[in-house]
């Protein structure tokens, strides 16, 4: 019951990290869990999965169709829980990695702009409206968690340049907001996942064995991460257990970014 009394919003909740986090939030007694995504059908399926696991959460879990790159939709979503006391926890997790994202020469302009619009502006809008809600409700604490990536920390020789740049922006933005709002009691942290076993990456890799091997060789543990392993970190950051944790880049990567060479 680490989130008892807290109203939480999770974007990108139709699958992967967002769904696993919504489940943990509901299991940990959150007063409200808003599951938001741009895909309404997948969102309803995700909610049904959650309710199978946490049947007593039916009156606390809501879905909201929201494109995070549209500020009016983010605003509407945040305002939808004002009557329940406003936001306490905002997990800005929605993101894309486009199939046409490439290197400095081959990344199309439109893909660059689309990626920044969703991955950077979407996170900014989420932070902005979380802060407005926290202020409006005169809260003295709040937790905002933004999903970045290990590619914001280490260079990848297999480029998705627009994605990498967008995740670097998420880290820098989160760090600055943490310092700006430290005395308000609003904590901002970013999550840096390693390559995961979620649709975002697995669909992109498909059955291309060489593409997979190019990544797997770098994993000290020898495997992709699981979404639920990220969700446990998000739960910690959302809860008061993390009351003195702000401005941090929480790396959940099976040791990948600390490896020189990996075991044979
Ligand atoms: P996922 O594809 O399962 O989930 C992403 C969700 O975001 C999807 O449900 C999608 O519909 C939603 N989404 C996309 N655009 C949106 C928009 N404009 N508005 C609202 N929702 C939108 O993938 P995931 O791995 O769970 O990804 C979650 C986050 O983790 C992303 O920000 C991703 O960049 C990041 N991440 C993933 C990996 C990985 O290997 N999968 C690694 C590092 C970081």
- In the CATH hierarchy, the third-tier topology is known as Rossmann fold
What is the domain tally? 1
Mean pLDDT: 97
The tally of helices reads: 8
What about the largest sheet? 7 strands, parallel
Strand content: 5-15%
Biggest sheet strand line-up? 3-2-1-4-5-6-7
| Secondary structure category | alpha/beta
Keywords:
single chain, Rossmann fold, 264 residues, 7-stranded parallel sheet, 42% helix, 7 strands, alpha/beta, binds nicotinamide-adenine-dinucleotide
Give the structure's gist in a few sentences.
With 264 residues, this protein is an alpha/beta fold. The protein is 42% helix and 14% strand. It is globular.
Task: Describe the overall structure.
This protein has 264 residues and is an alpha/beta fold. The protein has one domain: Rossmann fold. The protein contains 8 helices and 7 strands. Strand 5, helix 5 and strand 6 form a beta-alpha-beta unit. Helix 1 runs parallel beside helix 2, helix 1 packs across helix 8 and helix 4 runs parallel beside helix 5. The model has no long low-confidence stretch (mean pLDDT 97). Nicotinamide-adenine-dinucleotide binds next to helix 1, helix 4 and helix 6. Pfam families: adh_short_C2.
């Amino acid at each position: 019951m680490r989130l008892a009394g807290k109203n939480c919003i999770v974007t990108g909740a139709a699958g992967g990290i967002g769904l696993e986090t919504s489940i943990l939030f509901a299991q940990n007694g959150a007063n409200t869990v808003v599951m938001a995504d741009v895909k309404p059908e997948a969102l309803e399926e995700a909610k049904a999965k959650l309710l199978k696991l946490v049947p007593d959460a039916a009156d606390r879990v809501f879905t909201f169709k929201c494109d995070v790159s549209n500020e009016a939709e983010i605003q509407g979503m945040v305002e939808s829980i004002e009557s329940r006391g406003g936001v306490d926890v905002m997990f800005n997790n929605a993101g894309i990695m486009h199939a046409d994202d490439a290197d400095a020469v081959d990344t199309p302009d439109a893909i660059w702009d689309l990626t920044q619009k969703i991955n950077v502006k979407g996170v900014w809008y989420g932070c902005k409206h979380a802060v407005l809600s926290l202020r409006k409700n005169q809260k003295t604490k709040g937790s905002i968690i933004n999903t970045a990536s290990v590619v914001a920390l280490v260079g990848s020789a297999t480029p998705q340049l627009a994605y990498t740049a967008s995740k670097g922006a998420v880290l820098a933005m989160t760090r600055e907001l943490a310092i700006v709002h430290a005395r308000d009691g609003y904590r901002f942290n970013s999550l840096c996942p390693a390559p995961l076993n979620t649709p975002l990456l697995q669909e992109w890799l498909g059955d291309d064995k060489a593409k997979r091997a190019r990544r797997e060789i770098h994993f000290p543990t020898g495997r992709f991460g699981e979404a639920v392993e990220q969700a446990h970190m998000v739960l910690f950051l959302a809860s008061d257990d993390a009351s003195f944790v702000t401005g941090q880049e929480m790396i959940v990567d099976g040791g990948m970014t600390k490896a020189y060479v990996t075991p044979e």
